[in-house]
Write a structure and sequence with these properties.
Number of domains of chain B: 2
CATH class of the largest domain in chain B: Mainly Alpha
Helix content of chain B: 55-70%
CATH superfamily of the largest domain in chain B: MetI-like
Shape of chain B: globular
Oligomer: heterotrimer
Largest interface: B-C, 94 and 94 residues
Distance between the termini of chain B: 26 Å
Number of strands of chain A: 10
Chains: A alpha/beta (271), B mainly alpha (326), C mainly alpha (328)
Structural class of chain B: mainly alpha
Radius of gyration of chain A: 23 Å
Distance between the termini of chain A: 75 Å
Number of strands of chain B: 0
Chain lengths: 271, 326, 328
């Protein structure tokens, strides 16, 4: 009697495990993403739409951390796709970059500061620390020392900003580093003498003064037409060619009308 | 005369008026009053401000709506998933902590008083629990990450394509939360067991019961309210913890299950808690929706206050074991 | 088999099972120290103990670690984390000193001076403050205190005086220490109150009989008698302050900078800082990079060891308390 009970208990456990294991293995495919905070809103929206259109086939786990973190994660195999907000470098030879949208990098100041335009020389001078007071900047209604906000070193937007709008120079060491775009926006919104840089999606949210660069305003239209100088690309990056669920997702972003609608709402479509 | 227990502050008798004191004493008096009252003021300010902001931003529907992914976080969705996440993590934490805490308390009070070996082992266990109590949340979280990212424990979260174990799931967070709840539960149970008078045990032994049966049938039922108090203390510690959830729960806005087996997929899944929801919506996270942060923080504060009241009620209603026997 | 499990166990089996379960906690502690130490070894290997010192550019070192590949070179492990240690020690020390002063005063108020009705209100208030989650303290800090400091307390002159060195945004030492003090004081009050009530009333009555006024009697006699309790409370509060990560990360300004007294007092208080615990939170997402992972684990190791030392210290300090049968 006891032996039968023992046997049946063992069989039940084996049965549960036996059923569970293949069930777990053959479940919906899981795509993990990490990387840029600037493309996170876009990728989240795209992923949500994709899941809605293909229910029970795929799931996404989207983390952030910054472009460099994403690249490291995808190289190490911890994630399937990396969100990247900067151009590929020589170190990324074994990675495949798939562009999904373009974005403009806007220089922003506090709303109370009605600075309308900055030349490239002025932008360089401000962000490298050469000009440290608002009185040195004609057209600025703020006064006092300039508070420069920048991004942490892992940010793709920072890398793109430096190469496109800062002539390759480095931001002044005393600048306050913010870890995400949201934090950068908060910081400039709360500092009357603040200045920083954001993707156009964040800059357009209101609450900040977007500054023209060399006379060209920073928005979707000027970015699409090529007038605005500071335009960079959001990439989805995989280690080697994308495969499986990741490939289907990236292909869908490239081809489907729904994806294009999402991209066009706040960002600049590729091509 | 000395047998009368008199509260030292109440034996004033003929009081000397502060007007006759030295300046330094008067200053000290003022400082003491200031300290006491400013604490009250700060507490009132916190509660009133959170209440004001909460009422301003909390729509009752938010508690039952799921969070929405949208470009404009401020307008959409509620925080049902984070609230559920808090509940699930607390449940897992207590489920793991309770057997551990009760077993340790029973062992130390009933079996750990014996020979030299068991007494030194008892001291080891007591010190370990004290060390766990003193360990910062964030170190426990990092330790949890180290453990659950071992390839051996991959089934407890999931394994990414390239072989990296994710290491973050409800079971990971819950297991580490149990370390938070363990010390208060253990202390409450141990105090309760120590307060049970020897007569109850001796009566059971006289009836021929073994020690373990006495524990099961006599002692544990009589310390039920202590265990309840300890559990509530543990839950309030778990509910208030942010660091462990930030690091170990995978930070997905909604609860995402992992796999197909019904309960197991929740354990392996990721999610968020009320505390991380407040954090992520504050200017320290994405900062996109301070209104949501205030609303969720208000709910969190109400929850913690309710737990506090529960602790006090349970403590007061505790059956005084001594008086019930004599 | 199941039948045998359901029958009451003999005592020796029960004892051994319960003992094994209890010792699991000890195993967890050992595992904690082992795991964290092993994973932080690369930092010690490449820096020796010099990583605790200064002289390097911390932010650049972290940037380098983030950019390092899966096979880091020796240079990728370079770390000089003194600013973190300094920030931790500074914020903790100030908060604990302030906290002890306020806690002792408030405890004397609750136990000795306040009328019963007022005590009955203040005690639940203290318990409330102790149970508010740290994220709510952080929320109020970052939404109320930091803008207040940044917009109303920091003057333009202050900002100019550190131009080019660091920016004063309001988030920094002042809000951090203020909120940290509020967080740790209730814990100390609970301990000190218990100790005050355990002091035999005859001691104070003797002092009053000799002509001291009640408050002076407390100062002369009772406070000296509860010195071990004050130290135990300070140890407990220090442990709590060291481990505070979330609140500090929200209000400390997130810049690895060592607040410099040479800049003068108000400016010194407004400068940003970073502590070990807040650094762990800040870098948690970059933990995929092996060198940054080792760095984060080494910060955890420091915190773990200090918690350990404080636990032992706390135990040693509580021994004299047994004299007064005060449960601490």
């Amino acid at each position: 009697m006891h032996r039968i009970r023992r046997l049946s208990a063992a069989l039940t456990v084996a049965g549960v495990v036996g059923v569970a294991a293949p069930a777990v293995a053959g479940a919906t495919s899981l795509v993990t993403i990490s990387g840029a905070t600037s493309s996170y809103p876009l990728v989240s929206l795209l992923a949500a739409k994709y899941v809605k259109l293909h229910p029970h086939k795929i799931r996404f786990k989207i983390a952030q951390g910054g472009t460099t973190v994403g690249i490291n994660d995808v190289k190490a195999g911890s994630v399937t796709i990396a969100d990247v907000a900067q151009e590929p470098t020589s170190a990324d030879a074994d990675l495949d970059f798939y562009p999904i949208a373009k974005y403009a990098i806007c220089v922003v100041t506090n709303k109370a500061n009605t600075l309308a335009n900055l030349t490239s020389a002025q932008v360089s001078a401000i962000f490298t620390g050469k000009d440290s007071s608002w009185s040195q900047i004609p057209g600025a209604s703020a006064s006092g020392p300039i508070e420069v906000f920048t991004r942490t070193s892992v940010a793709g937007v920072l890398t793109s900003f430096k190469s496109l709008l800062l002539e390759g120079k480095s931001v002044v060491k005393s600048a306050t580093e913010e870890a995400t775009e949201g934090l950068m926006r908060q910081a400039v919104e709360n500092a009357p003498g603040g200045i920083g840089f954001l993707s156009n999606y964040q800059a357009d949210k209101g609450g900040l003064n977007s500054v023209s660069y060399n006379g060209v305003a920073c928005n979707k239209t000027t970015a699409a037409s090529g007038q605005y100088a500071g335009v960079s690309v959001f990439f989805e990056v995989t280690k080697g060619p994308a495969s499986g669920g990741a490939a289907a997702f990236i292909h869908w972003i490239d081809q489907s009308g729904a994806a294009k609608k999402i991209i066009a709402s706040q960002w600049v479509p590729i091509g | 005369m000395s047998a009368v227990a008199v509260h030292s502050g109440r034996t004033r008798g003929r009081r000397s008026s502060p007007m006759s004191w030295r300046w330094s004493d008067r200053l000290a008096l003022a400082a003491a009053w200031l300290a006491g009252l400013s604490l009250c003021l700060i507490a009132a300010a916190i509660v009133l401000y959170m209440g004001y902001r909460g009422i301003q931003y909390l729509r009752p529907g938010m508690i039952f709506e799921r969070p929405q992914v949208s470009a404009d976080q401020a307008g959409s969705g509620g925080f049902l998933d984070p609230l559920l996440g808090t509940i699930v993590v607390s449940a897992i934490g207590i489920a793991i902590a309770m057997p551990l805490a009760v077993a340790s308390a029973v062992w130390i009070t009933e079996y750990g008083q014996g020979g030299r070996v068991s007494r030194s082992l008892a001291r080891v266990v007591e010190s370990s629990i004290e060390i766990v109590a003193g360990t910062p949340d964030i170190v426990i979280a990092i330790f949890g990450l180290a453990v659950f990212q071992l390839p051996l424990l991959a089934p407890l979260s999931f394994q990414a394509e390239g072989g990296g174990v994710f290491g973050r799931s409800f079971i990971a967070a819950g297991a580490m939360m149990s370390l938070l709840a363990l010390p208060p539960l253990y202390a409450a149970t141990r105090d309760g067991l120590q307060a049970v008078p020897a007569q109850m045990r001796e009566a059971a032994f006289a009836l021929g019961k073994t020690r373990i049966t006495t524990v099961r049938r006599v002692l544990l039922p009589s310390v039920r309210s202590n265990i309840a108090t300890g559990t509530t203390l543990g839950i309030s510690r778990i509910v208030g913890s942010t660091a462990i959830v930030l690091i170990l729960l995978g930070s997905t806005l909604r609860i995402e299950t992992q796999g197909a087996v019904p309960v197991v997929n929740l354990l392996r899944g990721t999610g968020s808690s009320l505390t991380t929801y407040v954090y992520e919506n504050s200017p320290a996270g994405e900062g996109a929706a301070p209104e949501k942060a205030y609303a969720a923080a208000f709910v969190l504060l109400v929850l913690v206050l309710a737990l506090n009241v529960a602790i006090e009620r349970l403590g007061r209603g505790r059956r005084d074991v001594v008086s019930s026997v004599i | 088999m199941l039948e045998r499990l359901k029958r009451p166990w003999p005592d020796h089996r029960a004892e051994r099972t319960l003992g094994a379960v209890s010792l699991l906690v000890g195993v967890v502690i050992v595992a904690m120290i082992a795991f964290v130490a092993v994973r932080s070894w690369p930092i010690f290997q490449h820096n020796g103990l010099r990583w605790l010192g200064g002289g390097g550019d911390f932010e650049a070192e972290i940037a380098r670690m983030n950019a390092a590949t899966a096979h880091p070179t020796a240079a990728d492990y370079q770390l000089r984390a003194w600013p973190l240690l300094y920030g931790t020690l500074l914020s903790t020390a100030i908060a604990v000193v302030l906290g002890i002063a306020i806690a002792v005063l408030a405890s004397v108020f609750i136990v000795e001076l306040a009328p019963r009705r007022v005590s009955r209100v203040v005690i639940p208030v203290v318990r409330l403050l102790a149970s508010v989650p740290s994220v709510i303290y952080g929320l109020i800090g970052i939404l109320v205190l930091v803008p207040f400091v940044g917009n109303h307390l920091v003057s333009e002159g202050d900002r100019r005086s550190v131009l080019g060195v660091v920016q004063l945004t309001g988030a920094g030492l002042a809000p951090t220490v203020a909120i940290l003090t509020v967080m740790i004081t209730p814990i100390m009050i609970a301990l000190v109150c218990e100790a005050l009530e355990a002091v035999p009333p005859s001691w104070k009555e003797g002092a009053v009989a000799l002509g001291l006024n009640p408050l002076r009697a407390v100062r002369a006699v009772t406070l000296k008698a509860i010195r071990p309790a004050i130290v135990a409370a300070a140890v407990l509060a220090t442990a709590r302050a060291l481990g505070e990560a979330v609140m500090i990360q929200m209000v400390s300004g997130g810049k690895t900078f060592a607040p410099n007294l040479d800049h003068g007092v108000p400016v010194f208080l407004f400068e940003p800082l970073r502590t070990l615990a807040s650094a762990i939170l800040d870098f948690r997402e970059g933990i995929g990079s092996p060198s940054l992972k080792a760095a984060v684990y080494s910060f955890s190791l420091l915190l773990l060891l200090s918690a350990f030392v404080l636990s032992v210290g706390g135990y040693l300090v509580k021994l004299p308390l047994r004299r007064y049968q005060a449960r601490a």
